[in-house]
Amino acid sequence: MRGPAFRDRREAGRQLGERLAAQIDGEGVIVLGLPRGGVPVAAEVAEALGAPLDVFVVRKLGVPGHEELAMGAIASGGVRVLNEDVVSALGLTPEDIDTVAERERAELEWRERAYRRGRRPADLRGRTGVLVDDGLATGASMRAALAALRRSGAERVVVAVPVAPPETCRRFQHEADLMVCLETPERFRAVGLHYRDFSEITDDEVTELLDRAASGSEEKASPSPASNS
Known about the structure:
By secondary structure, the chain is α/β, with parallel strands linked by helices. The protein has a domain at 9-57 and 119-213: Rossmann fold (3-Layer(aba) Sandwich). It is built from seven helices and eight strands; from the N terminus they run αβαββββααβαβαβα. The protein has helices at 9-21, 38-49, 84-90, 94-116, 140-151, 166-175, 203-221; strands spanning 29-33, 53-55, 58-63, 66-75, 79-82, 128-132, 156-163, 178-183. Strands 2-1-6-7-8 form a five-stranded parallel beta sheet, with helices on both faces. A hairpin with a 2-residue loop joins β3 (58-63) and β4. α1 (9-21) packs parallel to α2. It is globular, with a radius of gyration of 18 Å. The N and C termini lie far apart (64 Å). 40% of the residues are buried. Mean pLDDT is 91; it is low at 222-229.
């Protein structure tokens, strides 16, 4: 029986970066990691493409009392995406949704401030945004991110993940300009089962990766010291 496809998120990101580098030009690209688990994957993708790294904060809207079940998601820019099948099946009211959304919006805003530490969000107008996560199940959070990215003025939106169910990948092939998914197991149960090490990523780790990427970008942008010769 085959074991997990990836050792950890960094290895998955390197493989994903190699695949993307063969399909898109890194010019005008910004890589956007969905926190927290998507950021280590995105850091490797950004390295492979020679592109800037930023974070794209999305919050799942969990069903009250069954928070692991997504009824939708919100993203920066006031974007809200609902899973109408779940909302209808459970008889959820607009008030139920608004209560959860308001709580998650406060958390979203806090995370954006904490992760960026005063840095402005990347300007995506006329550029290619590559949305990266460590895997997809239903894809609710990624759909919210994709909708928000469309509103940002991005010229092209790419969704890239190491693993997702076949039906989820097919759906994003129609919604994104390009969908890249390395593994599409028919018997998909959970993203974490496809990693040997799926340790929880902390907020500090996300911040460190973003700080390191920002520092590297500043060094590249700085002019070289003038030669004394």
